[in-house]
Amino acid sequence: MGKAVVTALRDLIPRNIVHQMSSTRETTTIAALATAPVPAGIAVLRISGPEVKRVLRGVFRAKENPVESPRKLILGDLLQRDGKETLDRGMAVYMPGPKSFTGEDVAEFHIHGSPLLAQKLLRVLFAFGVVPAEPGEFTKRAFLNGKLDLIQAEAITDFISATSERALKIANEQLHGRLSSTLEGLGEPLRDSLAEIEAHIDFPEEDIQPESVDKILAALETVHARISPLIRSYEYGAVIKEGFRVLLCGAPNAGKSSLLNALLGKKRAIVSTVSGTTRDVIEEPAIIDGLRYVFCDSAGIRDTEDEVEKIGVELARERIPWADLVLLVVDAGSTDSSWSELLHELHGSAAQIWMVTNKIDLHPEAIGTIFCDSSICPQNFYVSALTGNGMDSLRTALVEEVQRHNRNNSEASEILTNERHRGCLDHAAQSIVRAREAIEQGLPLEIIALEIRGALTALEEMVGKTFTEDILGRIFSKFCIGK
Ligand SMILES: Nc1nc2c(ncn2[C@@H]2O[C@H](COP(=O)(O)OP(=O)(O)OP(=O)(O)O)[C@@H](O)[C@H]2O)c(=O)[nH]1
Ligand SMILES: [Mg+2]
């Protein structure tokens, strides 16, 4: 292959990678409230940057200044701007860089949990030239200083916002680098293969041995086989993180709102004898057996002349594709024809449908007589939202359904919970497939190398070994201030 072609191929390598991991020196010192801005027992303010020592000496008065006793929580007075009057009595701790969260000099102030007081202390800090931290800036600095990788940085948000045991566990594992080390392991055979190929590109006089080609093919196969289950695990990971989405759908007055309230264990939606009570879509999260669900009540679906109800019916229909599962709520006293039409409609657009026959306290004869064919609804339930009868089996089935997703993904030892990670792995998998095809078609080594490098870049982007300002911006802007 001519040199010009090789150069042209090299030009195809993504150019948007502007950074490699390196230590950066920030010149500003940032401050933010690290706890929620609500009245509480205490509030914690955090500052990070080169001016921390000067600030501590200026705003904190105690027998020993924290600067002289690093990593020790010291009781003292937080001073006003003038350095004389006291703002609050609290504690301060100094954590010198690089052995701190951000890698820079860091200090924390533990003060009384008044949002106003916190604001006043922040203003004092700003008077020292400290600037307000941007969302996620502490974690971003920690990342830029190599204290954690991008997956770990993202895991912090997941860890803080986890609402179920499982989500907490996965975030904790990611925070401690389990997923990162898996990725490291995935990259190794790719790097070896690339080195082998590049050696041959550099010394083209020697032909690449068939054994080497077989080894590279096997390596690509292995990596692909490990990435695929990880990608598939995202389906379950999203359920774990965001919740399993259940839509309650049915004719007016079937008892959807009553069922919602029964599932939540609280009166969230208005229940009334009036047909067409619910107009809006009511979304509410709930935890059942440590798993997260999002239940959604909607307007009863029927043809109506009422303008507002019409909108409600439209909203209910729009929600069908959103749901992982639609519960078709049917009044046990109703006739077959009243719900079969809706079932037909759902069959085309719902991911999965279960039929829930409600009000069995009024119509026990419906048990076993009203049901939907198992080819359309894999499950039929008979409940009374009023008495609670039958609700346990529905709840158990909901838990089993989420666990079934888990079992389907048990081939992956880890679960992906982040859309960005899924995207990166998808990218890597596609590059590997193309590299394999290139080998099989006997294409030039440069093309094979290009694809393997593409796969490696995708893996490196996932952990943040290479990144663009744009990626960092998108990730950290989702953080709250103070993180
Ligand atoms: N006896 C009995 N009554 C019920 C049961 N579930 C709901 N109801 C009653 O049925 C009526 C309608 O209940 P809702 O929960 O408002 O029904 P809905 O499907 O949300 O109705 P719309 O919002 O109008 O579509 C109310 O009077 C409820 O008290 C039940 O299991 N048994
Ligand atoms: Mg309702």
How would you explain this protein's 3D organization?
With 483 residues, the chain is α/β, with parallel strands linked by helices. It has three domains: 1-21 and 148-241 and 410-483, tRNA modification GTPase MnmE domain 2 (Four Helix Bundle (Hemerythrin (Met), subunit A)); 30-145, 2-Layer Sandwich (Gyrase A, domain 2), CATH 3.30.1360.120; 243-386, 3-Layer(aba) Sandwich (Rossmann fold), CATH 3.40.50. 46% of the residues lie in helices and 17% in strands. It contains 15 helices and 15 strands. The chain has helices at 3-11, 52-59, 115-127, 137-144, 150-161, 165-175, 178-202, 210-242, 256-264, 307-319, 336-349, 391-408, 419-440, 445-463, 469-476; strands spanning 19-20, 30-33, 40-48, 60-61, 74-79, 86-95, 106-113, 131-132, 244-250, 282-288, 291-297, 325-331, 353-358, 379-382, 466-467. Helix 7 (178-202) runs antiparallel to helix 8 (210-242), helix 7 packs antiparallel against helix 14 and helix 13 (419-440) runs antiparallel to helix 14 (445-463). The longest helix has 33 residues, at 210-242. The chain starts with a helix and ends in a 7-residue tail after the last helix. Bound molecules: guanosine-5'-triphosphate and magnesium ion. Magnesium ion is lined by residues 256-257, 269, 277-278, 297.
How many helices in DSSP terms?
Answer: 15
Strand order of the largest sheet: 4-5-6-7-3-2-8
Return the domain count.
Answer: 3
User: Termini distance?
Assistant: 52 Å
Looking at the structure, the CATH topology of the largest domain is Four Helix Bundle (Hemerythrin (Met), subunit A)
Q: What pattern of helices and strands is seen along the backbone?
A: HEEEHEEEEHEHHHHHEHEEHEHEEHHHEH
Count of distinct strands: 15
